[in-house]
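Duplicate of #3305? Posting structure anyway:
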C-alpha cells in the first residue's frame, strides 16, 4: 500500500512539473510574440533593404550594399560574433529593358511584356524574329520533333495548376519549362524560347527566374524570356486563329565571370552546449525587378529578428543560435553550398536549421525534413502554437539554402506562410515593400523565434542512437 501511495505521489509530482514547464514555455512564447508585435524591428529593416537598397541580384552593387547593411545591423545587436563568409557567385546583368511584339501577316504589331530569364544569352543586336510553336511542356518537344521546331521560337505555355491548394506544388509542376526549356528546345534547333510566367494571377507582369543551359556549348545557346500571363493568353489565342504569326523580341542581357560576394553570419554562443548549432536564415540576394521584399527580404529580416528577440527578452540559449543570410539562392545556390562546405570542414555539429523563403505572409506553420523520432518530438510542441492559429506541422521540404546541411541527423525546417498570394509577386516587378503586411511579417518572425526557443531548450537528445539513423 505504501508503495502504491509513493508511486501516486511521484506521478502527481511529475505531472505538476510537466504542467509548470508547459506553462513556462507558453509564457515565454507569449513574450516573444509580444516583443515582435509591439516592439519589432523586422519591418523597419525590410523598409531599408527594399526602399533604400532595392533589388539585390548576385554580383551587383546592391547585393554588396545589402551585405554591408545587414552586417552592420547585426553588429548593433551585441551578438557574440558577426562575420562575412566569402563565396564566389555568378554575375549576370539584364541590360536595357526587353522589348517584344506579336505580328500577324499584313496586320499591326502588338507589344507584349517579357523579361529575360536569369542566365539567358542575349538576342542578336537587331533582335530575334521568327514563327512560333506553342507547347505545353518539355515532354511536348519530342512529339513535334525537329521538323516542326527548327528555326522557330518555342512558346512554353503550361500554366500553374489552379486546383492544387499548395501553390508550391503547382509551381513545381511547371518550373522545369522555365529552368530547362531553352536547353531542351535548342536540341531540336529552336531559335529561341518564351515561357509563360509562373503565377496564377492573370496580369501584365512577367516573372523572371533562373534557367540553365546544362552542358550546351555557348554557340548553341538560345535566348530565353518569360512572358506575362495575360500576354501568354493573348499569344495562345492568336495562334489558334493564325499559326503563321511572327514573334519578335530583343534582349540585352550578359553573363560575366564569377565575382566575390558573402554570406552574412551572426551568432549567440550557447551557454551550455555551444558546440551544438541551430541555424536560422533566408537569402539576401533577389532578382533585379521589384525590390525582393517577399523573396527573400522577409526571410532575411525575420531571421535577424529571431536573434534580436532572444536578446531583448533575456533568453540565454543553451546551444549556439546562428543567423545566416545566404547569398546567391536565386541563380546558383552558391551561398548555401559554401556554408555547408565550411561547416563540414570545421566539423560543426548542426542539430537544426530553419529557413524562411516563402514570403512574408501570415504564418501557418512549418514543414520538417526529419526522422520519425525527431518529428514525433516536434509534434509535441504543436499545442504551444495553436493559440496563434498556427496548426500546420507536416513532413516535407525545408529550404534550398539549408538543404546542403542534410546529413541524416540534422533536422531541417521551413516556415510555411499562407501561400495563396505568394506567386502573384514571386520574381516579378510587383515584389515590393508595399505588398508586405507589417503584422504578418512580425507574426512570422515570432513564430520562428518560438520554434528555435523550443529546439534550443529540449534539443534532440538520443537521436544519435535512433535505429533509423544507425541503419
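Output from current build:
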Amino acid at each position: 500500500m505504501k508503495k502504491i501511495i509513493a508511486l501516486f505521489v511521484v506521478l502527481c509530482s511529475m505531472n505538476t512539473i510537466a504542467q509548470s514547464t508547459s506553462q513556462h514555455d507558453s509564457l515565454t512564447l507569449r513574450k516573444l510574440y509580444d516583443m515582435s508585435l509591439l516592439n519589432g524591428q523586422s519591418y523597419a529593416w525590410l523598409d531599408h533593404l527594399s526602399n533604400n537598397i532595392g533589388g539585390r541580384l548576385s554580383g551587383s552593387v546592391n547585393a554588396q550594399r545589402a551585405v554591408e547593411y545587414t552586417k552592420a545591423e547585426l553588429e548593433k545587436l551585441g551578438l557574440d560574433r558577426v562575420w562575412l563568409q566569402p563565396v564566389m557567385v555568378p554575375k549576370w546583368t539584364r541590360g536595357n529593358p526587353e522589348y517584344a511584339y506579336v505580328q500577324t501577316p499584313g496586320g499591326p504589331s502588338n507589344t507584349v511584356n517579357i523579361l529575360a530569364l536569369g542566365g539567358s544569352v542575349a538576342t542578336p543586336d537587331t533582335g530575334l524574329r521568327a514563327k512560333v510553336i506553342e507547347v505545353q511542356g518539355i515532354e511536348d518537344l519530342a512529339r513535334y520533333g525537329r521538323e516542326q521546331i527548327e528555326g522557330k521560337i518555342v512558346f512554353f505555355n503550361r500554366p500553374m495548376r489552379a486546383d492544387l491548394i499548395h501553390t508550391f506544388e503547382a509551381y513545381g509542376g511547371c518550373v522545369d519549362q522555365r529552368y530547362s526549356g531553352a536547353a531542351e528546345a535548342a536540341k531540336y534547333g529552336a531559335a529561341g524560347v518564351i515561357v509563360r510566367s509562373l503565377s496564377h494571377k492573370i496580369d501584365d507582369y512577367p516573372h523572371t527566374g533562373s534557367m540553365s543551359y546544362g552542358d550546351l556549348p555557348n554557340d548553341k545557346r538560345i535566348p530565353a524570356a518569360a512572358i506575362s500571363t495575360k500576354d501568354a493568353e493573348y499569344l495562345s489565342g492568336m495562334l489558334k486563329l493564325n499559326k503563321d504569326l511572327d514573334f519578335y523580341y530583343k534582349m540585352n542581357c550578359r553573363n560575366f565571370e564569377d565575382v566575390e560576394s558573402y554570406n552574412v553570419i551572426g551568432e549567440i554562443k550557447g551557454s551550455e552546449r555551444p558546440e551544438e548549432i541551430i541555424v536560422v536564415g533566408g537569402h539576401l540576394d533577389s532578382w533585379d525587378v521589384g525590390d525582393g521584399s517577399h523573396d527573400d527580404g522577409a526571410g532575411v529580416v525575420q531571421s535577424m529578428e529571431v536573434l534580436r528577440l532572444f536578446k531583448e527578452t533575456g533568453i540565454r540559449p543553451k546551444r549556439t543560435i546562428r543567423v545566416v543570410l545566404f547569398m546567391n539562392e536565386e541563380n546558383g545556390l552558391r551561398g548555401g553550398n559554401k556554408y555547408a562546405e565550411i561547416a563540414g570542414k570545421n566539423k560543426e555539429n548542426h542539430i537544426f536549421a530553419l529557413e524562411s523563403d516563402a514570403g512574408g505572409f501570415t504564418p501557418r506553420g512549418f514543414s520538417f525534413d526529419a526522422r520519425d523520432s525527431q518529428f514525433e518530438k516536434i509534434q509535441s510542441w504543436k499545442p504551444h502554437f495553436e493559440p496563434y492559429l498556427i496548426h500546420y506541422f507536416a513532413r516535407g521540404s525545408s529550404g534550398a539554402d539549408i538543404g546542403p546541411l542534410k546529413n541524416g541527423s540534422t533536422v531541417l525546417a521551413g516556415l510555411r506562410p499562407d501561400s495563396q498570394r505568394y506567386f502573384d509577386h514571386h520574381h516579378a516587378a510587383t515584389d515590393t515593400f508595399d505588398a508586405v503586411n507589417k503584422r504578418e511579417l512580425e507574426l512570422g518572425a515570432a513564430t520562428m523565434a518560438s520554434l528555435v526557443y523550443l529546439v534550443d531548450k529540449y534539443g534532440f537528445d538520443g537521436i544519435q542512437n535512433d535505429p533509423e539513423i544507425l541503419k
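Confirmed duplicate; merging threads. The two ends are 45 Å apart (CA to CA). The CA atoms of residues 363 and 417 lie 4 Å apart.
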